[in-house]
Amino acid sequence: MSEKFTSVHYHSYLQLDKILDAQHPRSAQVEESVAHDEMLFIIMHQVYELWFKQIIHELESISLMFEDNLMDEVEILKAVTRLERIIEIQKLLIDQINVMETLTAMDFLDFRQYLFPASGFQSLQFRVVENLLGLKQEQRLTYNNLPYDVVFSETQKEVLERSIENKSLLTHVIEWLDRTPFLEFSKFSFLEAYKKAVERMIQKDKDAINASEILSEETKKQRLTMMGDTSTYFNAVFDPAQFEEMRNRGEVKFSYKAMLAALFIFLYRDEPILQQPYRLLSRLMDIEEMLTNWRNRHSQMVLRMIGRKTGTGGSSGHQYLKSTAQHHQIFTDLYQVATLLIPRSELPALPEELKQYLGFYFSSHEHVKE
Amino acid sequence: MSEKFTSVHYHSYLQLDKILDAQHPRSAQVEESVAHDEMLFIIMHQVYELWFKQIIHELESISLMFEDNLMDEVEILKAVTRLERIIEIQKLLIDQINVMETLTAMDFLDFRQYLFPASGFQSLQFRVVENLLGLKQEQRLTYNNLPYDVVFSETQKEVLERSIENKSLLTHVIEWLDRTPFLEFSKFSFLEAYKKAVERMIQKDKDAINASEILSEETKKQRLTMMGDTSTYFNAVFDPAQFEEMRNRGEVKFSYKAMLAALFIFLYRDEPILQQPYRLLSRLMDIEEMLTNWRNRHSQMVLRMIGRKTGTGGSSGHQYLKSTAQHHQIFTDLYQVATLLIPRSELPALPEELKQYLGFYFSSHEHVKE
Amino acid sequence: MSEKFTSVHYHSYLQLDKILDAQHPRSAQVEESVAHDEMLFIIMHQVYELWFKQIIHELESISLMFEDNLMDEVEILKAVTRLERIIEIQKLLIDQINVMETLTAMDFLDFRQYLFPASGFQSLQFRVVENLLGLKQEQRLTYNNLPYDVVFSETQKEVLERSIENKSLLTHVIEWLDRTPFLEFSKFSFLEAYKKAVERMIQKDKDAINASEILSEETKKQRLTMMGDTSTYFNAVFDPAQFEEMRNRGEVKFSYKAMLAALFIFLYRDEPILQQPYRLLSRLMDIEEMLTNWRNRHSQMVLRMIGRKTGTGGSSGHQYLKSTAQHHQIFTDLYQVATLLIPRSELPALPEELKQYLGFYFSSHEHVKE
Amino acid sequence: MSEKFTSVHYHSYLQLDKILDAQHPRSAQVEESVAHDEMLFIIMHQVYELWFKQIIHELESISLMFEDNLMDEVEILKAVTRLERIIEIQKLLIDQINVMETLTAMDFLDFRQYLFPASGFQSLQFRVVENLLGLKQEQRLTYNNLPYDVVFSETQKEVLERSIENKSLLTHVIEWLDRTPFLEFSKFSFLEAYKKAVERMIQKDKDAINASEILSEETKKQRLTMMGDTSTYFNAVFDPAQFEEMRNRGEVKFSYKAMLAALFIFLYRDEPILQQPYRLLSRLMDIEEMLTNWRNRHSQMVLRMIGRKTGTGGSSGHQYLKSTAQHHQIFTDLYQVATLLIPRSELPALPEELKQYLGFYFSSHEHVKE
């Protein structure tokens, strides 16, 4: 008789004995009367940690797919699905701030002193999430001029170490883009075709400015100068050497090839074999945005809760969180690609043979029949 | 040296050792390979239970306020604030279904068999929440023709019992409305004044129908008959005997006096002393609505996940949940009051003396000075 | 000189002269003092109508794709994208009810009389949306025992007629499923393979029930009887005659073939060529759910606003809206498919040749090379 | 026969002839084939403008209440209700970005050229909203080094002028706080009492740091230094001269008295007569936050849509919007107050007489009876 038919109760399955017996307000231990709102404070953070665990579970599984070189066309869909789950969780994390905000400053201050020096800064799992995504150690803001891991125990530091040693999602994605086969396709030079389209587009924009009836001559000049900036940016793409310099200066993280591959995927996203890769890249941008939204909202909430006071962990609270929204960004290179996009109507047609390669076997077979 | 200055770490404060070690997928125990998505299933439900604990924490504290007769004008604000917190949590519970829906039917079916016969139906805390709010035992839908508590252990049943024995929020609110002093104010007969306003309003509506140029005579007659129904309903308010009959038939739960008090509060909500009581009643309606939304969304999700299959607990799943949305309602009497409202411009003016009683001491003092 | 370089101003481009001069509160015309909140009432409904126009724009474009037989593998993605846009708009429509709810009953009643007999029931565009999606005329609830189009002018009725005459999205989808080529693939009998998998699964479930240590014998018997129901439902799929009877009774709208095709797509959704068709079907379910959510929320709001009073249009308001949530459903057949799903691990493997047909040309080519 | 009984149809009431005939895609005029997605672009912006009109309607009505000196205790509730409506609308404005994001960069680029030089920067109503709230002209970021109103016609500039000439909401609120009577109450010196409470609290925090077992001596010193900063900040409150300097440097906009009044309201928010004033101030903070959220989300969307390209209006797009999130802030002074809050348990008790003044007439009367 297999073990799997053993009955299980909701209560034991979810280990609610543990889960629901893990709320012990500090204010109850040190004072006669417990601060009513400390319960919310505890449960809210426990929920955050549960979701972080789930996010880590998903990120690690995606990394495994990349590592085992499983990332074929079917697996990509699975990775996309898991990234979409992370995004849905992130939405909850953000909306949860609305619950947090029902805790008023004065009620929080009532038990805040007992929490010292505990702080959200000490969430190990949150650091692991950042590392798994690909936040570079050198990007990290210091914390009262100390490294961010100063608050962790030795065992916790080991967990952190492992999350850094393994390849991050960012690294996996770059390597996967590097391997994209379609750029090197026979006679078609993607870069050449794209270059011409860009030139056409820029010329049109310039014509539009010059033809304007309401802009003054001065404004026109100004606008044309700005156009220059944009085209300068396009030029960087066409020149590998210039790109390499940007990379050396730390302005981009992608390799030249990875960047071209991402651009190719963004431009030809409708071709069957590129549909899921495009979604994958888009979801990474969503995750970045959600993380930034969360940091911004969190920072606002802290401002409202403790104003300019220092956080329980001793951090500068509001200011620190606001800075991470700006500096702890990971997939910035994908946003560069947005600058490089051109109108759909200007998109160079793909050679028939390449189009077939990017399509379904079935469709190609149908063609043959006809 | 007071204990309160002992340092505390985020990790131990939140008892993360317990919280993050309470996820043990059954599929991992009975098969070689764990079903990846079972983790989500577990964590999602644990988060639900954590929020239920918080809701119970708030509901119990509000009941205490009522019990200790603390419900003076300052305490009401506190109760309102806690109800608003519950509402914010309910929004999360609903939005969490979006995360749930990233678990597809086929992936769920992969580990569903191991959960048998565990079921959300076995959530003790959810039943306690329903009881604390005021769901009557006789309202409860049966579950495969068995009482809803058949799935609980003896200890759990005791917890349930306690949640029934104490006065529910509904009962507290009715008793609190019963005590409202303002209806009996000296010469002012609220009921008389309201009666006249209603008659005026109904006459206006009838005139509007009769004067219509586009309605056929037949439609006019039909509409006037329907008007009759509404005025019939208003009449029930004016006749305590008729109201008592409705109550005996189980159509209303409020006492006659409580219903009048609620109506008085709804109509004169702008008077200072009634502002928070009005918010209190409104928040109860919000909580009911959120609960109904959650049941509807939950029911839809189950339909999508397992179709017409029976739930793991053996319930008819989708259908059961949909029925509770209709039958497990608690504050229905407050919605009756909506039918009784009249346009603001038709509102009978309060006698100056009563107005002063409903106002601030400061304002009255100011008046005196002038 | 091409016309396209003419300058355009934001204000004229959006025709704000029209848009922002279309709010004329009735209360201002008939009384000295305008009801402040009527402005909200007007703008809220205008926003609804603007979004309805956008939804119609998307639905019509999708129908055109189907009509021109453009629905190849690339076009499906485009249709999915537009359905997803509709869903995002639907979310706004639902959340907009929160704005609506800032209008209190008493303030609404203040100008409600002037609106008579205007009513949301008279929204032509909303009826067109229902028709374009595929709501059958015979499904429609009557309105005071009169046909729903009694409120429209002749010109408006013509618009309605056109929205019925053309094939609805539902019809297009059924025909498209009917054309799916993969069910008839050479030696592989999808139905046979699926049948065996179902039998295996049902047997497992029965074993689980029989092996249970906590269920009483009586409960076991009851559960096994219910299981019978489910297998009965599965049997209907296997027997075209039985299915045809259900269809004649109006219980299903899909053809037998369309239903099998939908099931095939749901089960093998991971195969490259089925990924977008699966998304298409899923998005239709989302649209249905959103519409139902909106109807439920709208119905709740009306209950709160006017209670059991009749609507300005003379409808029974709350009750009518609640009934449409139940009866105005369109894509119900897709939910039937959910009942037919089986665990991913029980999914019958596809023959290698078919798998190739469902895959990418590139992958097949790679195979050849090796 | 009064005009008010004239029938009205939904369609004419909402002036749908105008509203639904105001979408004329430019791409349709200049090319053979219209860009499908331009419709969304137009409607989306029209919806924004309709909501802006509603927000202006509410803001102007609130200003009138202040102007007519109507802002007694009953009116404040009305103002709060209208601010809450604005907040609900702002939530929609933010969520609407999700609809906007279904328009992909490449599809947008397809008709973007025809819009030149129209730009969201030319929304007159949005500028009016900023002005009505209280954004100072000198705070405004320039736009390509030109004043922000350069894009408006003479008539539009007049509208702008009027929105500046009248007192802004910020000014009204400051003046209203200046008039608060309770600070000057007989023998009770609010400032003295508050001062002592702050000193007690800071001492406690210092003790906690010194008693810590895990902080190194160096860290302790660092933390104590930071504490110094906070107390420095508190000191500024106690010294009117120092505050005046901050005001002259433009660091604060409130008067000294207004700031004290706001602090008093925040601290004693539970006293009946302060409950609505507290909500009023809180809602202003919500509005500010929502506006900032919207600017942040908008900026992210633009980054994703056009990358570093310049906007159609010639602005630096993403960067400009991001900067306004930081610099176009209005109610910053209220956030300063958060820094000044103290734990509820440290709150100095009010003298009985003052407490009575802040309470209800009814309660005081009750007291007397006993």
UniProtKB/TrEMBL annotation, chains A, B, C, D:
Signal sequence segment: none
UniProt keyword list: Dioxygenase, Heme, Iron, Metal-binding, Oxidoreductase, Tryptophan catabolism
Keyword match Heme: yes
Molecular function terms from GO: heme binding; L-tryptophan 2,3-dioxygenase activity; metal ion binding
Residues binding heme: 298
Annotated pathway: Amino-acid degradation; L-tryptophan degradation via kynurenine pathway; L-kynurenine from L-tryptophan: step 1/2
Binding site for substrate: 112, 312
Required cofactor names: heme
Cofactor note (record): Binds 1 heme group per subunit.
Reactions that this protein is recorded to catalyse: L-tryptophan + O2 = N-formyl-L-kynurenine
Gene Ontology terms describing biological process: L-tryptophan catabolic process to acetyl-CoA; L-tryptophan catabolic process to kynurenine
Pfam families: Trp_dioxygenase
EC numbers: 1.13.11.11
Highest taxon of the lineage: Bacteria
Function recorded in the entry: Heme-dependent dioxygenase that catalyzes the oxidative cleavage of the L-tryptophan (L-Trp) pyrrole ring and converts L-tryptophan to N-formyl-L-kynurenine. Catalyzes the oxidative cleavage of the indole moiety.
Family: Belongs to the tryptophan 2,3-dioxygenase family.
Record note on quaternary structure: Homotetramer.
Protein name: Tryptophan 2,3-dioxygenase
